């Protein structure tokens, strides 16, 4: 494992408002009991967080209470799939549920609308909407709304980084950057969209072009690295394997966050190509996989009860 660590201090509104229309109604929760009474399956309890058929999440409560008891911290996971495929159950990675709930965390994995029926802007709005929903219903879920981490892999890494750096998505739901305890981005490669379109693998070109289009201004707007001037989510953990574009993108995002005074840690792991890209997501939570211990240590720092977290450096 190769380690690089950076530490620091902790016209669009109409577009976002349209993308998150209906959020207030969802938060009002006309039938709270009905929403939380979804069937419990092997994939977790199914809950709707919005009105679209893809506005659903799977929820797992902690397998054991945290060190001090009380409401559990939550990891809100966003799947990958090139912005156009994947879902909350088949792209989460099987090891995460048992591991993180065993550590005393609650875990939720969300579905979101997909390209081309939806835009990347809509997907980021869906992530913010899901966050707003779980915070609004924290008491019913048994979670602590002050201790929520956004975590995502691949396209999901891009989306959680975008929500964590561009405050307009959170603000459209009535939240701000301090509504998050932090962001974990797992092997993304589109934090700077123009750079990735110019220098990334040609094989992925059509996927990026479908997701981000040809308008340079829109590409910049959807680039977490280019949106990382403060304010940002309080802290970021960026993981990558040995893909040249992923390394470059992770380091550039970290540098932008560091320049903005945001606490950021970058960790590098073995694995190349698509196999390595998939393995870091599939095996995260496996105690024998090196990334698991790194994420665990970072989560303990960020998700400590408020009194302990106030003294941490991120």
Explain how this protein is built:
The chain has 314 residues and is α/β, with parallel strands linked by helices. The protein has helices at residues 13-19, 23-28, 32-35, 94-102, 120-136, 138-141, 155-165, 167-171, 193-199, 205-212, 216-221, 244-259, 273-283, 290-302, 306-309; strands spanning 2-6, 40-41, 44-48, 56-60, 72-78, 106-110, 143-153, 182-186, 235-240, 263-268. The longest helix is centred in the middle third of the chain and has 17 residues, at 120-136. It is globular and about 50 Å long.
Ordered list of secondary-structure elements with their pairings:
Blueprint lengths: L1 E5 L6 H7 L3 H6 L3 H4 L4 E2 L2 E5 L7 E5 L11 E7 L15 H9 L3 E5 L9 H17 L1 H4 L1 E11 L1 H11 L1 H5 L10 E5 L6 H7 L5 H8 L3 H6 L13 E6 L3 H16 L3 E6 L4 H11 L6 H13 L3 H4 L5
Parallel strand pairs: 5-6, 5-7, 7-8, 8-9, 9-10
Antiparallel strand pairs: 1-10, 2-3, 3-4, 4-6
Helix pairs in contact: 5-7
